[in-house]
Design a protein that fits this description.
- By secondary structure, the chain is of the alpha/beta class.
- It is built from nine helices and eight strands.
- Helix 7 packs parallel to helix 8.
- It is globular, with a radius of gyration of 17 Å.
- Bound molecules: zinc ion (ZN).
Length: 246
């Protein structure tokens, strides 16, 4: 069976990039005005759910990010973990109801699809396809602009993981502009990470997990105005992947 083709590889300087995985292929920049896709990941593990239940953490849902995107009329693509969607159906409905936003999968349980991926517990290979399918099943009832895009938890993948999820016929969409907003308390640094690495055809990764990425909404206005001031059109991943007439 043909392997799904990862659209953008994880930054090899930041993330594990096992040998034997498909080589890095940067998305060719489309003709015309330069375009960039802002993407936002959510994650939710059982440990995070326990922190919510115990009251140790107040929220893993960053409403401020959605507010700012809507205020500035900025399209975006959301890679949502199934367990996050189940915990935050109201915010998921709000995202799905906006035609500028599209929905994609960030797995169901946000477990690792490789043996070592940060602190994430590993998902057995034989459960990988089912986990991806389950995440799309959780998203489907919310309607809106559904996709078959999938992003690996932690950005970690290898050839075995790609083979395991091939039966789901999803399209793997990684990223090549890392905002580094997770556990980052400096909105200006987050903004600079994005603007410094901006390029035509780029895919930015940020998070909407409030407690684990507390300053994303504060960085967002300068990211959006900075990219637009540099001539970038902000688009969804689907739009970025659609070739434009020359
Ligand atoms: Zn993640």
């Amino acid at each position: 069976m043909a392997l799904p083709d990862p659209i953008v590889p994880p930054d090899p300087t930041r993330l594990p990039y096992p040998t034997g995985s498909p080589g890095p292929t940067r998305l060719p920049g489309p003709a015309g005005s330069p375009r960039i896709a802002l993407t936002f990941d959510s994650n939710m593990t059982d440990a995070m759910l326990a922190r919510l239940t115990s009251g140790k953490v107040k929220s893993y849902a960053n409403v401020g990010v959605i507010d700012e995107l809507q205020r500035s009329h900025t399209p975006a693509t959301f890679f949502l973990a199934g367990k996050w969607v189940e915990r935050y159906p109201g915010l998921t409905h709000r995202i799905a109801a906006d035609p500028s936003f599209e929905l994609a999968s960030h797995s169901y349980a946000h477990l690792a699809f490789t043996t070592h991926c940060y602190h994430l517990g590993a998902l057995p290979t034989e459960q990988m396809a089912a986990d991806v399918e389950r995440s799309f099943r959780v998203l489907a009832p919310f309607g809106g602009r559904q996709t078959r895009y999938f992003r690996f938890p932690g950005g970690c993948y290898d050839a075995r993981a790609l083979r395991a999820i091939a039966p789901t016929h999803c399209t793997v969409v990684q990223y090549d502009i890392v905002g580094d907003d997770a556990f980052n308390n400096d909105p200006r640094a987050i903004t600079n990470n994005v603007l410094r690495n901006a390029h035509n055809g780029g895919i930015v990764v940020l998070h909407i997990t409030q407690a684990n990425a507390p300053r994303t909404a504060d960085a967002l206005p300068a990211i959006i105005t900075g990219l637009r001031a540099r001539g970038y059109q902000l688009v969804t991943v689907s739009e970025l992947l659609t070739p434009r007439p020359q």
